[in-house]
Task: inverse folding
């Protein structure tokens, strides 16, 4: 049922929150964002082994917990709240979903257990610079060399692309989209870390030069990849929700304790009303995320539309809340020392990642046929 | 002995069997009178006063049975919204025992329509600063002043009136609450024409109106407390629920976008489409947030999701009606309804005309029932716990408070 969370869901949230409050406090986030690797492998192992959330959506037959989008949304919301620096979105969501939804059984059997256990991390390399979020624009074509495949060309904006040992690459074979497995240390692969706007999530450009690759899908993988990307979008919007709630909390707490002109600044309506507007945005974002998570159990079209709506709304809500949080903190909010900028950078990068709000609004409008008769008549 | 659910159901069915609701003619008074007499008007009220002393939530059982059992259902909020929603609870809590039953019964049947006389031209958001004065004269109070935005005043028998009985104490402490006979000498009701040329509301002028002291509800100086209690007495939610997916104003916008033929450039078209898509998403999230609020209310731990609705709804609906007029384009210049001053509400016969009407009517959404500024204060202070503005009028006599 829509919006019905069980006691187990509450328990999952509490467990993850307790863990992250210790393992991903601001000090830790700052250390990790300054590191080359961008995450703490020891902490990642504990997330896999003690919490079991690395393999959260990996099916049980592949060594995971076999949970769905509602559980994933809960976990991702908590991660977004603390700006967790870890390859969760790249490995536990994107690579995992691409393998679950678009790869052959043999590849699933081989790779998924390693991702679920935290022994390896993976990522999905699909974006090309010309039109990064549009699967139909993928141009990289695999060359067949006597049954073996080779990849040449460039993929960019690859999440955690420098650390992943299992790289799933989307490229074409005879015009059809296919998935390929490339090892992180494969010959002919060079990985360049891109200096990220959001230092809490690492990005890479990957250059392939006749890089050996194993095809791990059969038939056209477009639909499976679309669904995988939709899962990643829902997880990202849950992160956005967690972040938006956090900056609202920060702004509100500050407005209660910061005195100017002899009174707390939160008593000025010009500040109070901004907090109220943020509250409305956060509550709407919550509805959008939970709706998308629950809708994933429904028919594919409603699930897609729910995901696109959430991506459009939560992106703008989080960015707006992060902007206002800086403004309410005044000069303090502009300093490196204060964490407001970390949330702003995460908010802006998350808005852009996987496609802008207007990109998804247009997909939704086209899918629902808004103004279809008018367009036809012209 | 407390009545259980099945007995309540049985009692409701018996009522339906006795009076044929669907028979020709107006059986409303007879039926609702009988409903009152057998305690099914407000089941939470005491026996003999329209109720059975049951939990308020059991009212839904009566509601369900009546809906199932009759094609005609007398929607009580349409009959006498102020009487049912505010008059009955306040009469029950503060009315004199003598005559209470008759007052409640006539509220429920709709024989007596009630109105609410709180707002004044000089007291809108700050309703506790109201200026209508009542001065004691023997067994009566003599009232002078002006009330505004009074729905149904022109057809009302009774008004719920808050007046200032003591100007020498701080504003909240000098108010008293009365039931006012709207037919008393000195009560003058005039239509209040609004932006559309219609009058949905009235102004009520009170010139030397004499109210018997026994019509005071609560004690002298307790008017604010009684008013708050009245405003808080929410009706048991009967039916209703969140609007359906894609319904309401957004449905009009989508229809217009689909069917109005206007030449637009590709750039204009893209911008408009993006706005429509954005409004569609916001409408859908408003609906979903309502569903979430309802789910949370049932679990008895209300959260912020319930408080954001009024503010968000006003803003989204206003933006939708603005967008509708942009879809209509040049046709917006023509206003077919006209501005002839008239009473009541105009009904629009199609979506195009509805859009034009609501472009004007929707300006009130962010004012009526609490302005959006007040709603933001409530969200900021009651939900987020932010401190209030310093009050200059809190501790000084009302008569010394600066006013316009």
Result:
């Amino acid at each position: 049922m829509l919006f019905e969370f069980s006691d187990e869901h509450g328990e999952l949230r509490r467990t993850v929150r307790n863990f992250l409050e210790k393992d991903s406090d601001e000090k830790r986030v700052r250390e990790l964002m300054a590191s080359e690797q961008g995450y703490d492998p020891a902490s990642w192992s504990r997330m896999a082994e003690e919490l079991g959330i690395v393999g959260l959506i990996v099916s049980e037959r592949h060594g995971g917990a076999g949970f769905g989008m509602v559980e994933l949304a809960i976990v991702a919301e908590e991660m977004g709240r603390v700006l967790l620096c870890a390859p969760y979105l790249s490995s536990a969501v994107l690579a995992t979903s691409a393998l679950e939804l678009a790869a052959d059984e043999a590849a699933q059997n081989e790779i998924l257990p390693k991702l679920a256990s935290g022994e390896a991390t993976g990522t999905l390399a699909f974006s090309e610079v010309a039109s990064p979020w549009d699967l139909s624009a993928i141009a990289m074509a695999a060359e067949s060399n006597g049954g073996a495949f080779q990849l040449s060309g460039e993929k960019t904006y690859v999440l955690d692309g420098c650390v992943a040992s299992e790289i799933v690459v989307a490229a074409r074979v005879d015009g059809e989209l296919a998935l390929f497995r490339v090892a992180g240390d494969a010959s002919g692969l060079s990985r360049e870390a891109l200096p990220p706007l959001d230092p809490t999530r690492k990005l890479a450009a990957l250059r392939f030069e006749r890089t050996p690759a194993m095809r791990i899908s059969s038939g056209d993988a477009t639909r499976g990849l679309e669904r995988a990307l939709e899962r990643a979008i829902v997880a990202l919007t849950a992160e956005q929700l967690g972040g938006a709630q956090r900056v609202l909390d920060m702004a509100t707490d500050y407005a209660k304790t910061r005195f100017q002109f002899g009174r707390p600044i939160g008593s000025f309506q010009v500040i109070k009303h901004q907090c109220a507007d943020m509250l409305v945005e956060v509550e709407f974002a919550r509805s959008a995320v939970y709706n998308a998570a629950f809708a994933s159990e429904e028919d594919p079209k409603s699930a897609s539309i729910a995901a696109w709506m959430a991506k459009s709304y939560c992106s703008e809500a989080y960015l707006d809340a992060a902007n206002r949080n800086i403004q309410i903190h005044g000069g303090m909010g502009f300093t490196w020392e204060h964490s407001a900028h970390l949330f702003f950078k995460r908010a802006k990068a998350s808005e852009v990642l996987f496609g802008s709000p207007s990109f998804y609004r247009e997909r939704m409008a086209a899918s629902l046929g808004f103004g279809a008769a008018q367009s036809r008549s012209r | 002995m407390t009545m259980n659910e099945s007995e309540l159901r049985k009692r409701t069915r018996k009522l339906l069997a006795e009076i044929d609701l669907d028979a020709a003619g107006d059986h409303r008074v007879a039926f609702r009178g009988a409903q009152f007499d057998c305690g099914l008007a407000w089941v939470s009220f005491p026996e003999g006063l329209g109720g059975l002393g049951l939990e308020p939530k059991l009212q839904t059982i009566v509601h369900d049975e009546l809906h199932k059992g009759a094609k005609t259902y007398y929607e009580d909020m349409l009959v006498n919204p102020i009487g049912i929603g505010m008059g009955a609870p306040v009469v029950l809590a503060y009315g004199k025992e003598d005559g209470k039953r008759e007052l409640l019964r006539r509220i429920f049947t709709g024989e007596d329509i009630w109105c609410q006389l709180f707002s004044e031209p000089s007291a809108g958001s700050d309703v506790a600063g109201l200026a209508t004065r009542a001065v004691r004269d023997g067994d009566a109070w003599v009232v002078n002043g002006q009330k505004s935005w009074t729905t149904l005043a022109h057809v009302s028998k009774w008004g719920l009136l808050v007046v200032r009985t003591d100007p020498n104490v701080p504003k909240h402490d000098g108010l008293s609450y009365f039931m006012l006979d709207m037919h008393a000498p000195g009560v003058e009701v005039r239509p209040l024409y609004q932006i559309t040329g219609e009058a949905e509301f009235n102004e009520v002028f009170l010139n030397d109106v004499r109210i018997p002291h026994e019509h005071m509800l609560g004690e002298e100086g307790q008017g604010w407390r009684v008013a708050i209690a009245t405003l808080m007495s929410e009706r048991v939610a009967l039916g209703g629920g969140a609007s359906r997916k894609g319904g309401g104003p957004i449905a009009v916008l989508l229809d217009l976008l689909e069917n109005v033929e206007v030449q637009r450039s590709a750039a204009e078209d893209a911008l408009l489409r993006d706005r429509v898509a954005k409004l569609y998403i916001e409408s859908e999230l408003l609906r979903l947030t309502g569903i979430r609020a309802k789910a949370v209310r049932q679990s008895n731990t209300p959260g912020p999701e319930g408080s954001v609705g009024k503010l968000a709804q006003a803003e989204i609906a206003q933006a939708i009606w603005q967008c509708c007029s942009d879809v209509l384009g040049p046709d917006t210049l023509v206003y077919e309804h006209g501005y002839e001053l008239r009473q009541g509400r105009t009904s629009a016969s199609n979506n195009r005309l509805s859009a034009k009407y609501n472009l004007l009517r929707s300006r009130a959404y962010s004012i009526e029932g609490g302005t959006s500024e007040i709603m933001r204060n409530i969200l900021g202070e009651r939900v987020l716990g932010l401190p209030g503005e310093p009050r200059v009028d809190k501790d000084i006599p009302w008569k010394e408070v600066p006013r316009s």
Summary: Chain B is about 40% helix and 15% strand. Residues 114-232 of chain B form a domain with the Butyryl-CoA Dehydrogenase, subunit A; domain 2 fold (CATH 2.40.110.10). The two ends of chain B are 58 Å apart (CA to CA). The first helix of chain B runs from residue 5 to 18.
